[in-house]
Amino acid sequence: MIAFARAQLGEPYKWAGAGPDVWDCSGLTMVAWAQAGVRLSHFAQAQYSQTRRVAIADLAPGDLVFFGTSTSNITHVGLYIGGGQMINAPRTGDVVKIASIYRDKLLPYGGRP
Description:
This protein is an alpha+beta fold and 113 residues long. Helices cover 19% and strands 29% of the residues.
């Protein structure tokens, strides 16, 4: 799934995008995990509910990282790739890219499908 996500680097963000060449955050993580046979919903809040909690310190490549003001208000999800980095589709006007997970509104637990 990480190789799939890496192959999307540079492709544009589009709200509700789920490929093949435009992505939103949950569309990217949904389709990336589908490559491993795991079905996730196309909604960051639902992906949080569909995964097991993993402390940020225990994240493994492929885990999901979530951002928001609380677990009931998740606004973004990324695919953890190790070293404090994630692949994500950030926002309108941007592209799929690698970024640090350590930023505003990082929730204390990631998710493992």
